[in-house]
């Protein structure tokens, strides 16, 4: 057997550099890195030595680097991914939030935090967390509940099994998610004789599981027996590449389609059977479809509480079907499970149904809803009033093209965009599984890196911008152009409305309601410009539209700041549904008592199934 002598870190990056997808591209495109004493000597040297074959990129924060990598993987439909490495201690634990985000969204990312010395000779090292009762526990054990596969590399030879296991998870459609390989810093630098065959290029094929014949027959029978079925499109439609299959299935059998956050834009809004968003942040047309349905068919969705209206949206007597590649998700809420790749399942179902076609759908409700959206998003009359978020969305919509991708993650805008944005196919990217504030700027960069031919428009509120904005500097350094629409409502406007809607008083969300002597007046234009972005403040809605158009000519990020009214929510456009947010059982105000009575009334409608 021919061998080659390499350090463990050199072996890791060499192996990663030759793992390919079916399109002939590296599955792990490269590695984001912030170096520290836990990874600079080992992985840092190894990455430098292979820079031509496996690139390294420097970010500003470990969490946001990982957010960029996760957004990249999502925009690539899980067919490519990126690695992220950090030092030990705070650099590693900074990535735990990002790992949770990837886990919830079923997205692949390879996290390689440095770890303490396997030999334990110099313990305790700088930044080491010590467990007084267990010498094997360290800070990186925080990753265990938020990744799909965890391993701690304490000997070089462990990479021979750990690396293939990591790629198996990241390329498995059912198990897909984040992987953490905690890499002891002394082991990174330790040399070993490796089989040369270990570094032969390998192609990782993403399988397409076929549906079980009995499950398929049961679902076909349910569809044949239904008069008013509805399809709920989830993110699994994208990951399966099932967009065309969904459109063909819905059209052939005349079944309306409603959307989750992750599934929005798999079917373009212009499609006559797309009734828009479903659930808590759903359209009137979509929710009418779902509440009136006698069969609900989820395609690649986790049935999150926003989709199910906290288990009050679906009619109790309507059977629920869940088509999902992961049996855990397929069995939720007592659903009839069809465990399968989404594209294959839709094709098999359509073949089995033949020419079976449902009656007419309520096209008028869809048309009425879209007319409501247009009115709600129309430019305001000229005046001094601050625009609403819906008017901001309308301005960006009018300035957008079929190549535009709207993206967001947290605050008011996710619900508003799901309700109001009218995308072309693939024109929507929302991180709403974890709804992580701070994802937006880094996520926009990751999307643009994955889809350079598309225009990326990032919607972010001032609260989320303040949490994580530093990857703007990275995007400037790398000349990654995207447009940020920063809506300044002077605090956390979304949660301020929720606080009042659940019987509370305005407190600690908007700056005006905080226990402070002086409200901050943050100059977001100056702040973004200080990192090298092109930054400007829009005077009004027409000015915002003009600035969106101007941004397309630049080769670096553009930040457009616009002040908005924090009092208006997306639900004022119609639609929407109850969301289970616990209300205090006792309290002093009449408002709180009324909110609790309303809460109890709604909670009685919840389906009691697992």
UniProtKB/TrEMBL annotation:
Q: What domain of life does the native source organism fall in?
A: Bacteria
Q: What UniProt keywords apply to this chain's record, in alphabetical order?
A: Hydrolase, Thiamine pyrophosphate, Transferase
Keyword rRNA-binding set for record: no
- This enzyme's EC code(s): 3.7.1.22
Thiamine pyrophosphate enzyme central domain ranges (all copies): 216-349
In this protein, which residues make up the domain named Thiamine pyrophosphate enzyme N-terminal TPP-binding?
A: 57-128
Q: Name one GO molecular function term.
A: 3D-(3,5/4)-trihydroxycyclohexane-1,2-dione hydrolase activity
The reply on keyword Nucleotidyltransferase is: no
| Sequence ranges assigned to domain Thiamine pyrophosphate enzyme TPP-binding in this UniProt record | 411-562
According to the record, the signal peptide region is: none
Task: Spell out the SUPFAM superfamilies in the cross-references.
Answer: DHS-like NAD/FAD-binding domain, Thiamin diphosphate-binding fold (THDP-binding)
Q: Which family does it belong to?
A: Belongs to the TPP enzyme family.
Task: List the PANTHER family.
Answer: 3D-(3,5_4)-TRIHYDROXYCYCLOHEXANE-1,2-DIONE HYDROLASE, THIAMINE PYROPHOSPHATE ENZYMES
| Name of the protein described by the UniProt record | 3D-(3,5/4)-trihydroxycyclohexane-1,2-dione acylhydrolase (Decyclizing)
Phylogenetic classification of the source organism: Bacteria, Pseudomonadati, Pseudomonadota, Alphaproteobacteria, Rhodobacterales
| Encoding gene, per UniProt annotation | iolD
